[in-house]
Write a structure and sequence with these properties.
It is built from ten helices and no strands. It is mostly helical. Helix 5 (147-166) runs antiparallel to helix 9 and helix 8 runs antiparallel to helix 9 (234-262).
């Protein structure tokens, strides 16, 4: 989700509430003999407010599982609340803890909360940067779900080009023209380049390959075109390079999209751990 003008009310509202919470905590702490603690009525109120905001932020995952619940409001509105109320919850928890780390459980809670906020902010930055990077780096952007199919289709086209390079004939003449003109060494180099490098790259462009570097790939195609024995099939090599470029852009798009999802592998488990530790903290506080 991009931070645009629709977020302005949330930013203003969260900022006002955060300043009010910090200001009231400072004033109440000065008015309370011995200062506020997390177990005092006011400290507990801050803790409950922070926990409620965390629960609201966590409900976004539940909303994704039941998209038919339209009565809960637009998903974009929940996403805005997820962002700004999550940040606001940290302010209330900070007041609840009275700016202290606490014991081992509280320390674990703080570390997990920081991890949740950092991964969330990181994901938000990715959602801002990656669409722009896609526009610059991937002029031929395709639907992400269709990338595997498109890679197979490019491989099939490349197979046909290589086959046609070894046997080019006209309606009047069915005998091979180019095979007799190409030296066996040049033909072997082209076939080896295709079998060992280009075809595996097109089938799985995300895997390690020398062709992941576009400069090295262009140099490899230039060397093939420069071989005297491959002069008759330079047009075929050009077509193979065009297919390579399409595959490279699909690989770049897949890599950038993967970054959009990888951060969730840290953000979601940390969020679950935060809720579990928060419940454990509440239970232990009541028990002791």
């Amino acid at each position: 989700m991009l931070i645009d003008s629709s977020h302005r009310p949330w930013i203003i509202g969260a900022s006002v509430v955060a300043l009010a919470a910090l200001g009231s905590h400072w004033w109440l702490d000065r008015q309370t003999p011995g200062g506020l603690t997390g177990g005092s009525p006011i400290g507990v109120a801050y803790g409950l407010a922070g926990a409620a905001l965390m629960v609201y932020a966590g409900l976004l995952s539940a909303l994704r599982k039941v998209p038919a619940w339209t009565w809960l409001g637009p998903r974009k509105r929940w996403m805005r609340g997820h962002i700004w109320l999550s940040l606001l919850s940290a302010v209330f928890i900070l007041c609840h803890a009275n700016y202290r780390w606490g014991g081992w459980l509280e320390l674990a809670l703080w570390l997990v909360l920081i991890g949740v906020l950092v991964t969330g902010i990181f994901g938000l930055l990715l959602q801002h940067l990656i669409p722009r990077m896609l526009t610059v780096r991937v002029p031929r952007e395709a639907p992400y779900e269709q990338i595997p199919y498109l890679c197979k289709n490019l491989t099939r086209q490349a197979d046909e080009i290589v086959v046609s390079a070894w046997s080019v004939s006209s309606p009047e003449q069915e005998t091979s023209i180019l095979v007799t003109q190409m030296g066996p060494g040049a033909k072997a180099q082209l076939q080896d380049f295709y079998d060992q490098r280009l075809r595996p790259y097109l089938l799985a462009p995300g895997l390690p390959s020398p062709l992941r570097n576009p400069m090295k790939a262009r140099a490899a195609f230039s060397r093939l075109r420069a071989l005297p024995g491959l002069v008759p099939v330079r047009e075929h090599i050009d077509k193979l390079e065009d297919i390579y470029e399409e595959g490279r852009q699909l690989a770049e798009q897949e890599r950038l999209h993967r970054w959009l999802h990888v951060w969730l592998l840290a953000h979601i488990p940390l969020s679950v751990a935060l809720l579990v530790l928060g419940v454990l903290h509440a239970v232990m506080s009541l028990y002791y």
